Hints:
The complex is a heterodimer.
Chain A: H1 2-14, H2 29-62, H3 80-109, E1 117-124, E2 127-133, E3 139-143, E4 154-157, E5 161-167, E6 173-177, E7 182-186, E8 192-197, E9 206-211, E10 223-229, H4 231-246, E11 257-263, E12 272-275, E13 281-287, E14 298-300, E15 307-309, E16 319-324, E17 330-335, E18 345-350
Parallel strand pairs in A: 1-5, 4-10, 11-13, 12-18
Antiparallel strand pairs in A: 1-2, 2-3, 5-8, 6-7, 6-9, 9-10, 13-16, 14-15, 14-17, 17-18
Helix pairs in contact in A: 1-2, 2-3
Chain B: H1 2-6, H2 17-23, H3 27-56, H4 67-101, H5 110-129, H6 160-188, H7 201-232, H8 246-280, H9 287-300, H10 317-326, H11 328-342, H12 351-374, H13 376-382, H14 386-416, H15 422-448, H16 465-495, H17 533-539, H18 573-576, H19 581-586
Helix pairs in contact in B: 3-4, 3-5, 3-16, 4-5, 4-6, 4-8, 4-14, 5-6, 6-7, 7-8, 7-9, 8-12, 8-14, 9-11, 11-12, 12-14, 12-15, 14-15, 15-16
Amino acid sequence: MVLLLIAVVAVVFLTGAGSALYPPAPATDQAREIASLYDIVFAIAVAIFVAVEGLIVWSIIRYRRKPTDTDLPPQTHGNNFVEVLWTLIPTVIVLYLFVISWQTLNNIEAVSVDPDVRVHAVAGQFQWQFEYLDANGQVLATQSVPVADQGGGMAVPVGRTVYVTLDSPDVIHAWYVPRFLFKRDVVPGQTNHFEFTLDPSEAGQTYRGQCAELCGTGHRVMLFDVLALSQADFDAWLAALIEKSNATPPPLPSGATTLTLSAENIAYDTLELEVPADTPFAIQFANNDPPGVPHDADIRETDNTTVVQDQPTIDGGTSTTYTYDPLPAGTYTFICSVHPIPAMTGTLTVR
Amino acid sequence: MATHALSPAAVAGYRGGLYEWLTTTDHKKIGILYVINSFLFFLIGGIFALLVRAELAAPGLQLFQNEHVYNESFTIHATVMIFLFIIPMLAGLGNFAVPLMIGAPDMAFPRINALSFWMLPLGGILLLMGFLTPGGAAAAGWTSYPPLAGNSPLASPGPGQDLWIASLVLIGTSSILGGINFLVTIFKMRAPGMTLFRMPIMVWTVLVTSILVVMATPVITSAIVMLYIDRNLGGSFFNPESGGIAVLYQNVFWFYSHPAVYVMVLPAMGVISEVLPVFSRKPLFGYKAFVFATAGIGALGFSVWAHHMFTTGAVFLPFFSLMTFLIAVPTGVKMFNWVFTMFRGQLTFSTPLLFAVGFLTMFLIGGINGAFSASVPVDFALHDTYWVVAHLHYVLFGGSAFGVFAGIYYWFPKMTGRMLDEGLGKVQFVLMFIGFNLTFFPMHILGVKGMPRRIADYASGAGWNDWNLVATIGGFLIGLSMLPFIWNVFVSLRNGKVAGNDPWEGNTLEWATTSPPPPYNFDRLPEIRSERPLFDARHGLVGHGEPEPGPALLEQPAPSGEVPAAPDDEAGVGEQTTTGEDLETKR
C-alpha cells in the first residue's frame, strides 16, 4: 500500500502529469518562494488524496455484499488506537504546513527600508494608473495607459526592489499578476503595500495583470501589464514618461471648432454634441470627479464599441483639450472608455 | 406542549388536500415542503449557473451583451444556491427526519416551524423580483462587499440590492427560528431511552448546525442592516469617504458566512453518516469521536472567518492560518470514520450509498484543495481565482448536494411510502458524478493559471479556452442529470414499489413506523438501548455488551400513563410519548 502510494506520487511528479495543476513560472523572488511552498503543499496533498481515495475505492470494491453474505459482518464500533493515530498524524502534518507557510509569509512580506523604485498604483472603476514616486513620495510622472497593447504598462527594472502602494477612490479592487503568484486588495480608505524584485533573467518580459476583486460592470476590462526592463531601459522609459507628463498639448489647428464637455459623478454634463463635417475640432474636457477617477471622451461608431478616435484618459480634478481629426458627416458616439455606461455615452452629430 | 397539537380536536375537522398543505404544522409535511421549495430554487439557481457557463464556454461575449446582467446572474446563482437551496434543503431533511429519529411526535413549536418555512418562498420571490426593477437584481456578488454594494452610480444604485438585503433578512430570521426549534426539540422531546449519546449522528449534526445558526445568523443580519442604512439612510458604517471602514463589513459578513459553510455541510455529513452504516451493515466507526469532531468543527468554525480576507491587508494572518489548518483535523477524523465504516462491511450499492460514496470521494478533494488556501502565501496566488470556485463547489456541491440526494433517495420511501426507481437513480448518479467532475475539476487548472472569478469574458490568448469549454459541457451534463431525477419522482409517486416500513433495514427510529408515518409519528417505539434501536430490535444488542433476546418492540404506554423512566431521562417525557391512539380511531 505504502509502496503503491510512493509509486503514484513519483509518477505524478516525474511525468509532469501534475503540471496542469502547477502555477505559472514564478517571475519574482517572492513568487519563487511561494512556488516552492506550493510544491510542498501539492506533494502532501497528492499523497493524502491518493491514500484516502485509494482506501475508499478499495473498500467499495473489496467489501461489496456477496450473495453468500447472510451473516452480519463484524460489528466494529471503533478502535481507540487507530482513532488517536488518525487524529495525531494529521495534526502533525497541518502544524508542519502552518510553520513553513508562516516562514514563507515572513519572507515575502518583508519590505526594504529604502526600495529602489516606488510606484503608487491607483485602481478606479475601471482603470489602473501608476504614479512613479521619488524617495520623498513626490510624483515624478503618471502612467495612465495600463496595457502594453496601447503602448503603456507599468515598467519596472529587473533585479531591483520595487515598492508598490495601492489606493482606490471608489470600490475594492485587487492587484493580481498570475506570474507573480500574488495579489493584494486595493481597498478605499486603506493604503496597502507590497514589494517585489524581478529576476534579472526576466528583462524584456511582459506580464499580464488583472483586477481580481469584483468591482462592477467593467471588472473584466481592468487589465494592466507589468514590463520588466533592464535598469538602462527603465531609466530611459521613465525619463520619456516624465517628459510626456510635462509636455504642453499641441496647438489647435486654425479654423477648428472648440466645444466644452465636463464629467462629474461619473456622468457627462451633456449627451448631445454637434460639429461641422470634414473639419478638425477640439473638446475642452474637464474631469470634475475626485483624483483617481479618470475619464476621457473617445469617438466610436454608434455600436458604442468600434473605435473611431481614441483619447488618453485624464485624472479626476484635471482638464485638457482633446483635438480630433476631421470626420465625415454622420452620427457617432462619444464615450468614456473607462465608464461605458449610459450616463457617459453621448451622441456626436457631424453635419 | 406538543401534546396539544396531537389531541384529537386539533385535527378533527376535514381539510382538503391543498388547504392542508398550505396550513399544515406537521413537521413531516413541512419538511417535504422545504424539500420541494428548495429543489425548485435549485433549478432556478441551476439555470443561472448554466447561463454563466454558456457565456464562459468560449472567449468573446456570446450571451450577455450587457455585462451587468452577467454579474446579476452569478450573484443570484450563488445567493439562491446557498440561502434558498442548500441551507433550507438540509433544514428540510432535518425537519422531516429529526423528530422521527428521536421518537418525538413533532417539532417543539409546530406553528413556528410553519412560519420559518413560509418565510423562505417569500424571501426567494423578493430576491428574484429584483429582475423587474430598474437596474436589475443584485449584482455585487453573493458577498455584496461595500462600497460595490453601496448606492453610488457605478456601484449598486438600484433597488435590486435592497431587495437582496430584505430577502436575506427574512431567510435569516427563518433560519434562526428553525434553529431554536431544532434545539428545543432535540433537548426536550427525545423519547425515553434516547440519551444524547444514543442520538443518530444526523441529529447531532443538526444540533451543532442549529447552535451555529442561532449564534451566527444575527451577525450577518446586523451586517446587512448596516449596509441598508448606508445605502438608504445616509449611514457610513462601511463608507470610507465619511469615516467608515470597508473591510469591517467583510469581518462581520464572514463571521456568519464561514460558520454557514458548516451549516451547509454538517447536516449533509449527518445524512451520509446514516446512509453508510445502513448500507454497510455495520455501525458507524467511532461514534463518539464523530460527535466530538462535529462539535470541534462547530467551535473552530468561529475562529477561521478571516481566511476569506487574507489579501485585504487588514488581517492578522498567522492566527487565522493556524486555525484554518487545525479545522482540517476533525474533518479528517470524520473522513476516516466513514471509510472505516465501509471497511470490512457488506456494501449494497443502492442509490443512497452511491451518492454517499460520491460525497466521500469529492468532499475529500474539497477538503484537500481548501488546505492550499489555508497556507497564506499560496492563498495570495489562488484567492479570487477559479481555484476557489472549484474548492467551494467540491465542498458544497460534491459534498452537500450529493449528501442531499443521498438523503432524498434514502428518505423518499419514508416520506411517500414508495421507493424511487433504482435504475433511474443510478443514471442520475452517473450523469451527475461525471458532469460534476468535468465542470469543477478543470477549474483548479484555470485558477492556478490565473483566471479570476466573476469575469464575463477572457482573452483567447490567455490559455483558458479548452478547460472552460470542458467545464461548460460538464455543467450542462449536471443540468441533464436532473431530468431522470424529476422523471423518477413523478413515476415513482404513482407506480413506485411500495416501500413498507423499513425498506433499507435501517438503524434509526424513523424506520419503526409506517411509510408515510401517521401525523403523530409512532404507535409504538422500540426499546432504545443504543444509537441503533432498530438494528438491536432485528439482531439483538450485538457489540453493546450482553445480547438481550426477547421481545424487542415495547408497547408504548397510554397517553395518560406513567412512563418507566430510563436512568438518564429528562423531565416531562411522559407527555411527549403521547401517541394518539384516540386519534387513530377517529381517522
